[in-house]
Amino acid sequence: MDAAMDGSVWCAANYVPLSPLSFLERAALVYGDRVAVVSGDRQFSWGQTRERCLAGASALAQLGVARRDVVAVIASNTPAMYELHFGVPMTGGVLCTLNTWHDAAMVSVLLKHSDATVFLVEAQFLAVALDALRLLAGAGANLPVVITISDTDSGGGSGMDYEALLRSAPRGFEIRWPADERDPISLNYTSGTTSRPKGVIYSHRGAFLNSLATVLANDVVTTPVYLWIVPMFHCNGWCMVWGTAAKGGTSVCIGSMAPKVIFEKIVQHGVTNMACAPTVLSMIVNAPASERKLLPRRVRILAGGAPPPPQVLAKMDELGFEVVHGYGLTETYGPATVCAWKPEWDALPLAERARIKARQGVPHNMLQEIAIKDPVTMETLPSDGRAVGEVMVRGNTVMSGYYKDAAATEETMRGGWLRTGDLGVRHLDGYIQLKDRAKDIIVSGGENISSIEVESVLFGHPAVLDAAVVARPDDHWGETPCAFVTLKDGARATAGGIIEFCRARLPHYMAPRTVVFRSELPKTSTGKTQKHLLREKANAMGSLRKPDTSRL
Questions:
Q1: Is 416 exposed, middle or buried (0-12, 13-18, 19+ CB in 10 A)?
Q2: Residue 161 — φ and ψ, nearest 5°?
Q3: Is residue 479 domain-shared with residue 365, that is, in the same domain?
Q4: pLDDT digits 0-9 by tens, 178-232
Q5: How far apart are CA 373 and CA 353, in angstroms?
Q6: CATH number of the domain encompassing residue 80
Q7: What is the pLDDT of residues 234-273, one digit of tens each?
Q8: Residue 121 Cα to chain centre, angstroms
Q9: In sequence order, which residues have a C-beta less than 8 Å from that of residue 247 and are 6 or more positions away?
Q10: Could you tell me if 40 and 151 lie in one domain?
Q11: Are 422 and 479 members of one domain?
Q12: Domain assignment of residue 309, given as a range
């Protein structure tokens, strides 16, 4: 026993390393007969899920997976993907979930960078995976052991098939609990929209704490029914893979984000909670009446990834969804803040409630602090709703660091804060609100224009389904806003009409000078608009040459 102070000790009786593996143990004990995972006609109870996770861990250990070995997986939201979030850490290994939208070249880069010793691949992604392995072999890199994941209980019958390995795995496997709660549990690669992705290291401690924080932020009830929209590969499903276990919930896995499917599954399974990017909210509110269903209860949704337009939030409320707005990034295990709701706001008009809910809010329960700072002086800026600075966070749910990149880790955490690269303000009540990514701010005639603010106005246009605003070169002003717009089915609008709509609601210098109509905007697999691609399009259009004196 180590003495902490007179009369107190740290010992096995009062200290056990925190790990989300404990959530599974408790769920199997308390809710063993309740359904844990549903996917089509397949379902497993919590007791069965624990046994399958143990069998998976045993099989991986037989293949040589040891502590800190990386096990990569590329799979959609399936029972196997859910189970691997427990089975891999049970070996002491580190789970690395790869984006299912990556091409073979990127997958090969990440397999090499992560040093993956085992690679599990869902059947539908096998062609990409095999191409990636050929690229690895051609580069002379070590190849991981490959295990295929089929979409049935029977599997393919091969010794390197996931279901077959579960059936043949030696029983009696003993969980390798972390020796230190700071031991790594997963490796998550950033989206990499502008550069080679960085590998973000999550610890058992951070995953444990952020799972509970996300459950609290979303007011997840005991034994919830959780609809999986967020990919489990993205920040480990915003830590809700582990969070659903903490509450003994049922995970409903679906293969489509179509509003029709979402409404059907909510009604069929009695869904209580879900999470998604704002783009999914827009899809839901714009779904035709024939695809909607009357919800049996209000469904609570944690939305994050980009600020949802207030107009969309208002419509979601009318449809029976209660949207909780959060904010975070891969480096914060997903959710870091929540727009914590105050009862007195219930009496406000719907539009005002939506405007408040569009803010990113306050730190969740497990994050120590969030601040708006000058990135050079590190001065904390006034909470006046006007002073724009960089959003910075610190606390127990910040990543351990970037894998094999000490320099990037040091730079990102310079000054004792995680620098997010996002710009925002803090209001008088302490709630933060994003203004833009630092790289997305439009500097026009010396004025900073928030693309988020312009997009919010565009979403208020009755014909607009989706919108994104980026900078276009301008010979006179340097840059001016360029709006890429997708119209609702059957809707009509002109570029001039949309510009005038914005000018009636914004200072003229903030209104778009260019409007480009597109059938759809480019998105990442997690629903974020790929603005770097739109910036390339805007740059390729060349500079606007005629001075716009109407903005003065």
A1: exposed
A2: -100, 140
A3: no
A4: 999 999 999 999 865 434 679 999 999 999 999 999 999 999 999 999 999 999 9
A5: 27
A6: 3.40.50.12780
A7: 999 999 999 999 999 999 999 888 999 999 999 999 999 9
A8: 21
A9: 215, 220, 221, 222, 223, 224
A10: yes
A11: no
A12: 256-438
